[in-house]
Fold this sequence. Notes:
alpha/beta; Spore Coat Polysaccharide Biosynthesis Protein SpsA, Chain A; globular
Amino acid sequence: MTPEQTKISVVIPVFNEAATIGGVIDRVLKCGFDAEVIVVDDASTDGTREYLKTLEHPRVRAFFHSVNRGKGAALRLGFAAARNPYVFVQDADLEYDPRDYQVMIGPLLDGRADMVYGSRFLGGPHRVLFFWHYVGNRVVTLLSNMVSDLNLSDMETGMKAFVREKLVALRLSANRFTFEPEITARAARARWRIYEVPVSYSGRTYEEGKKIGWRDAFTAICAIIFYRFFD
């Protein structure tokens, strides 16, 4: 099967990304696969919602939260709407490149993996930014690895791919950025076959719209402990 014949669903959770959402959708549609694009707007207030309501494309579907519920809730809605056998998560901020789907889908297509992480720390090109963000990510990933007995390099990556039939069977509940530690903990517990591949990363500064910060790292640590001992 050629890439052009491979059917994938790409779920894009979005909140206040009017400047980038159009470009992200365009890049996904040109990623080289037969992709359906599922955009879930999490009650944006900057014009993103209005843009999506005017968007007409046969391979793009948009869903809307009436109130802000968080990334995890938006992803659950998108996952439920996905129709194709492979599901990708794509952030709406242009930090991750849909051209990397080409390398990510390999372990899924040949049956080696149920889930693939696109790692920012395995040698792919990346914009050089924020040493302390890097440290925070490594600490969170290390703690996650300790409790899940995995050896991931980038648990918090925003680019992940799944076999749909596995994904829909997983019980997810996290509403916000705690989606990342939750999906990792539940996949490890379910004995999924997990792969990592290098992807490129064009990180943003806070002036350019970056949203995640140290508070989210602390919340992720709490979530890792919760899903290990109290879930």
